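Lab notebook, design round three. We kept the backbone fixed and only want residue identities now. Task for the bench partner: fill in a sequence for the structure below.
Input structure tokens:
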């Protein structure tokens, strides 16, 4: 193989390792990252690390978390390393997780019910968030010394939450990985925000953005 071609292959492999921790084989799929759908100054589709929704004094922000970011978020609450929601593997669908923050400056209490949220892919898979029962089952399969359900609930939305005026809550919203891994785009529907005077329905779009070699 000519020297310049060898150098190019090695450089591409190094980039893949830095981004994913693996070296791609010949013919492997292109690298990508998952981010929110936004528009740039020219109105073209662009990646955004964080998306936001505001209405009636309620503000919702959401950010996709890759596996290392999920582990870091759990560690910040639990105080130790824990790979509780890993990525997809050949043997498992894995998980898709988001950092979700809800703040309210409305005049009434805000009720958030995570069980009414949905993750919908462009392959028509629909997933529901991990709630109390699903997290309990997951923890029951962990080795001895796993954190308690109560501790994990401090980091993950698993039950309804009431947010007082002027208050805020930030936790992980975790879904089982979609059955079909070939999806390119997903919608996260937060259709579970209840004020006394009205219900709010926030929809966020995420997609796989190609990472140029």
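Proposed sequence:
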């Amino acid at each position: 193989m000519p020297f310049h071609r060898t150098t190019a292959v090695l450089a591409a492999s190094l980039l893949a390792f830095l981004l994913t921790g693996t070296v791609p084989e010949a013919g492997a799929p292109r690298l990508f990252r998952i981010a929110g759908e936004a528009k740039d100054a020219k109105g073209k589709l662009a990646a955004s690390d964080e998306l936001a929704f505001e209405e009636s004094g309620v503000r919702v922000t959401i950010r996709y978390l890759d596996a290392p970011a999920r582990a870091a978020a759990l560690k910040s609450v639990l105080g130790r390393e824990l790979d509780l929601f890993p990525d997809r593997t050949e043997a498992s669908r894995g998980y898709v997780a988001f950092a979700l923050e809800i703040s309210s400056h409305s005049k009434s209490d805000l009720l958030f019910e995570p069980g009414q949220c949905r993750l919908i892919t462009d392959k028509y898979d629909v997933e529901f968030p991990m709630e109390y029962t699903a997290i309990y089952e997951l923890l029951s399969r962990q080795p001895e010394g796993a954190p308690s359900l109560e501790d994990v609930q401090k980091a993950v939305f698993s039950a309804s939450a009431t947010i007082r005026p002027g208050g805020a809550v930030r936790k992980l919203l975790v879904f089982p990985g979609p059955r079909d891994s070939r999806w390119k785009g997903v919608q996260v529907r937060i259709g579970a925000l209840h004020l006394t005077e009205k219900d709010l329905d926030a929809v966020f779009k995420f997609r796989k953005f190609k990472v140029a070699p």
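Keep this in mind before ordering anything: The CA atoms of residues 103 and 168 lie 4 Å apart.
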